[in-house]
Amino acid sequence: MLQYDHEADVLYVMLEFPEGKQYGAQLDEYRIVHSDEGGRVVAVEFLGVSRGLNLGGVPEASRIVKELQRFRAATAGVQLPAATS
To answer: Which residue segment(s) compose the domain that 16 sits in?
Structure first.
């Protein structure tokens, strides 16, 4: 599941439902990996995503690419309203 916050310019990619508590580990100033108590990667958060998306060194990168491709295919041809300030 993908969630994008336009105002914060943050993309949240949920890969699994966490079991127990969830922990975040910042890879760098633009990427946060969320894991559950069992050590499974459950989500990745990308900050400042309008500047680009760096998947280098991100766990589950291939799954994230598949989610992005699935989203692109599902929204092909969808006309979004113009953003207003």
So the answer is: 2-74
Name the DSSP class of 49. G
**Hey, what amino acid is at 29?**
E
Instruction: Please report whether residue 31 resides in a domain.
Output: yes
CA 72, 1, 50 angle in degrees (round to 5)?
Answer: 60
Specify the pTM. Answer: 0.84
pLDDT digits (tens, 9 = 90+) for 25-82: 999 999 999 999 999 999 999 999 999 999 999 999 999 999 999 988 888 877 767 6
What pairing do the DSSP bridges indicate for beta strands 22-28 and 31-36? antiparallel
Query: Count of CB atoms within 10 A of residue 4's CB?
Result: 14
- Hey, what's the torsion of the CAs at 24, 28, 29, 30, to 10 degrees? -80
pLDDT bracket for residue 83 (50, 70, 90): low
